[in-house]
Write a structure and sequence with these properties.
By secondary structure, the protein is of the alpha+beta class. The protein has helices at about 130-135, 170-195, 235-240, and strands at about 5-10, 30-35, 40-45, 45-50, 50-55, 60-70, 75-80, 85, 100, 105-110, 110-115, 120-125, 145-150, 200-210, 215, 225-235. Strands 1, 4, 5, 7, 8, 9, 13, 15 and 16 form a nine-stranded mixed beta sheet that branches. A hairpin with a 4-residue loop joins strand 2 (about 30-35) and strand 3. It is globular.
């Protein structure tokens, strides 16, 4: 099978809309991820619960996955939506193709990639109406994840000899820490399974819109991602059932906007 090249994200139509101010830098990873309700023009707040981060979506609303590259180097971001690679449509795996972000770049991923010029919009839908369910893959509806890879740099020899210290036992300590983290994750997963309920939202395959990218070369610094994070989404009702207290201010109507849409939509059928 032909291997897909990573895609360099082009910020389309520079000057068309002001770039949003980034939130504070996250201390735990090179790339931050959030969801944006495009119909309300608001970045959705996330809430911690069950060892996960949760976002309340609204059925029928378009959304975007907003990414911030806080690192001083290019990174490759493999994006999974409902367990599906948002570029290739394959069952998501970190080894697959992704988006390349330049140092300090922020970008909104607005849909399932159809070509280098178009995407099908991400839309909060019913679970049964999600792209994953309609293609026979409903098991991971309700979760969005990114796997981030650093770029390999060219190694150059030192100009003069340096003193080599004996190997430290850090790798074993790291292995123990990784084992502990795995056990903790398993415990959280069991707790989540015990409290889980049927999700009320999935991600549909919406209308087409322009979103331009191009192929670029990117050599990963390692086989495994440097950073992986997930964001779960559901209805406000289901989040409240989990005991999550939502910020009601986020549900107030947004202020009127002179330019609410980017492109001309099709007229309704007669």
């Amino acid at each position: 099978m032909k291997r897909l090249l990573p895609l360099l994200l082009i910020l389309p139509l520079a000057g068309f809309r002001p770039a949003p101010l980034p939130p504070p830098v996250a201390p735990d990873g090179p790339v931050r991820m959030s969801l944006v309700d495009r119909d309300r023009g608001a970045e959705l707040r996330s809430y911690p619960a069950d060892g996960q981060r949760w976002v309340a979506g609204e059925r029928g609303h378009r959304y975007a996955v907003r990414l911030y590259n806080d690192s001083p180097r290019r990174v490759l971001v493999v994006l999974s939506v409902d367990g599906i690679n948002a570029i290739s449509g394959e069952d998501a795996n970190p080894s697959q193709t992704g988006y390349v972000l330049n140092p300090g770049q922020s970008a909104d991923i607005t849909g399932w990639r159809k070509s280098q010029d178009e995407v099908a919009q991400f839309v909060f839908s019913s679970p049964g109406g999600s792209y994953a369910s309609r293609t026979g893959r409903p098991d991971n509806v309700g979760v969005i994840g990114i796997a981030v890879f650093n770029e390999r740099t060219v190694w150059r020899p030192e100009p003069r000899p340096i003193l080599r210290r004996p190997a430290s036992p850090a790798p074993m300590a790291e292995a123990s820490a990784a084992s502990a983290d795995a056990s903790a994750s398993a415990s959280r997963a069991e707790g989540y399974a015990a409290k889980s309920q049927a999700p009320a939202l999935g991600t549909g395959h919406g209308d087409r819109e322009t979103s331009q990218v191009r192929d670029t070369a990117f050599e990963r610094a390692s086989r495994d991602p440097a950073y992986v994070t997930e964001l779960r989404y559901d209805s406000a009702r289901n989040l409240r059932a989990r005991g999550i207290v939502l910020d009601t201010r986020s549900r107030l109507p947004r202020e009127p906007q002179a330019f609410p849409n980017r492109y001309v939509s099709d007229p309704p059928a007669r």
